[in-house]
Amino acid sequence: MHFEFSDDQKALGEAARRYLEAKCSPDAVRAQMERSVPYDRTLWQGLAEMGYAGIAVPEEYGGLGLGYLELCVVSEELGRVLAPVPFSSVLLASELLLEAGTPAQKSAWLPRLVRGEAIGTLAVAERHGALSPQSIRLSAAGCRLNGVKIAVPDGLAADFAIVAARTGDAANAIALFFVDLRGDGVARTAAATIDPSRGHANLTLKNTPAEPLGPPGAGWRLIETILDRAAVLTAFEQTGGADRALESARDYALARYAFGRPIGAFQAIKHMLADMYVAATLARSNAYYGAWALATGAPELPQAAAAARLSATSAFQLCAKNNIQTHGGMGFTWAFDCHLFYRRSALLALNLGAAPYWENRLITQMRARQPAAMGVAA
Amino acid sequence: MNFDDTPAQARFRAEARAWLDANAPHELADDIKGAVYGSFALKSVDIIAASKAWAKKKADAGWACLSWPKDYGGRGATPIERVIWQQEEGIFNFLNTLFVVGHGMCAPTLIAHASETDRRLLLPRMAAGEDVWCQLFSEPAAGSDLAGLRTKATRHADHWIINGQKIWTSFAQYADYGIILTRTDPTVPKHQGLTMFYVNMRSPGIEVRPIRQANGMSSFNEVFFTDVQIPDTQRLGAAGNGWNVSLTTLMNERLSIGGTISTGFEWLFDFCCRFDTGDGLAVEDPAIRSRLANWAVMASGLKYTGFRAISALSRGETPGPENSIGKLVAGAMSQQIASFAMELQGQAGILADPALTPDAAHAQFMMLRAPASRLEGGTDEILRNIIAERVLGLPPDIRIDKTIPFNQLPAASA
After folding, report:
1. What residues make up the domain containing A61?
2. Could you report the predicted ipTM of this complex, rounded to two decimals?
3. In whole angstroms, how far apart are CA A327 and each of A18, A33, A51, A335, A346?
4. Same-domain status, A172 and A127
5. CB contact, 8 Å: B302 with chain A?
6. Is B10 on the interface with A (CB under 8 A)?
7. E strand or H helix that includes residue B15
8. Do B127 and B30 share a domain, yes or no?
9. Do residues A39 and A59 both lie within one domain?
């Protein structure tokens, strides 16, 4: 059994960590929250130069041509430092282009994404509520789109969006379209979110020209496929964030004295931190399961992705909120870093669909794999 | 990243599987699967005889206590081979229950601290199930604070006289031997006045009384010692060094890797796939699905944490501290899962008659047993302290009992 990353993969992660620790301090993340530009361009350009914008993109499109496991270790490092860059959006866009794009779409955009010269994103959500095909109202008439998309990640910075649109009245009549956001019929405004270190936008499309991406009627299946992959990679991002929040709480518990001793000597603090460690450990193990399923193309991927997603979401949220609790009042200041983790943990908990979507997916998959119910006794 | 065996591991697994196919007591399989939750009994056979027979059969064929040296009745196998064996032995692991304490805790202590003569004499018999061993550590007033124990051992020329009481001793009623931690010097601080021995459980002056537990069953005992003689040759480690010797015993939790601590989830999920709440199958209810999903990821998290530890063993490394979370997670989960399953059964969930209750009252018996899972082998609170101190590096508690002589420590009045 080799249920861990290889030495080469670990070395890739360590290199990413060194780079990111030097280039992406918590102060840089905090500064990004107050800037008017939608992401840290210098950092993203630097990451792209190191190849991180196209880790799993084939070499013919300028990518590194590595696998999903390499992508996982880098995602974890970006999560640790809360990198304010469009990594996940570019990843979703690349995966969708590779999965369903025409040769022309791929050769036009993948090399630019990989070089950090273009940004793509996926636009699904239109209103408050659950992620489902029924929630898609933005309509496609031929190759013209009309409707709104909200909370689109990197929507202000993106050059193009892959947009989920309704092509008919049937519940699953959903198709994906490639939309040049710099073209006609696109209005976009910056969206105020719980985590301004990552830019989001609301889009209004009016008679907007679009190109189909993938076969008609396959839109929702494609979204599910891509969200499964993104869930695993985001789980690593969340696991990195959870670990870092736990380390921050641990360090503060050692350094802060009250009642004549470090607060980390009090069992109330110790037990809270132990529970954070438990959650982070479970999350990491589930993320590895997801990584294995993703890298091997296993049929368990939807189940493993949902498990990784749910476990990592709850671990990051627990670690982030208890990191503030450990810091006491100082943890509620803008100057301390705690809120950066708290905000990001809340953002990542929702941006690929909230828990109910993944809980439902997990149980559906587990049930399909469950051998005929036997019972312990008759 | 893969779950595959190396070629050598695959050969070992095939060999183990072939032997098990030919030799395991397959006729007991259904009986084992149907055993009442928390009970140590089989319907068709005497569990003690069946356990001993299985141990003997394995020992005769070289499949007992795989990681021990051959000279002591083991196989000299690698840690990963031991894990593979355990996976292959599967449900027949149930028949090892009687020997878990001996093989997992007493034996490593003997290997580290007994004389070579004793090791060659005692360990092969233990491996073959000829002798059952128990561990006599906890006392009524010394549980989490084990070093506060009071059972007294007094030196007399070539032997010691033991007086006191032990508690929570699993399988003492079947045990031939035990390892016992005693206080030999109450005038020094608590950790410095302890001494470890092994003791013949048939010695005069030993009385074993089953404890009637809160769940109505009796799997633990009280053991009373009245002027019990133990030869000095049965001392394990130096007089006064018993605390360090006991740490050898307790540190052997590493060997428990690959074992499964039941969370109850596998059963719950299966149950929810067949149980009709009156409003359709439980597994189809969105609120129930949400609860199931939360436990599902904890169960899979534990499973894959175990796989990470096995991977470390496979590389010849010592697994990291992540393995320490298993019992903490599983104990609390089994308690929550039991209550939840009963809740699904509505008012009839109070019925604990195996004949009238789904799955032979599995949920009900699990609920009644669960408090013990959160206490035995380290309480939830001790486990959190261990994670906080040894894994996260937080400072220990301020102690007022480490430097004062034991007999001057404040204690509850009798």
Report:
1. 7-114
2. 0.94
3. 26, 21, 37, 12, 19
4. yes
5. yes
6. no
7. helix B7-23
8. yes
9. yes
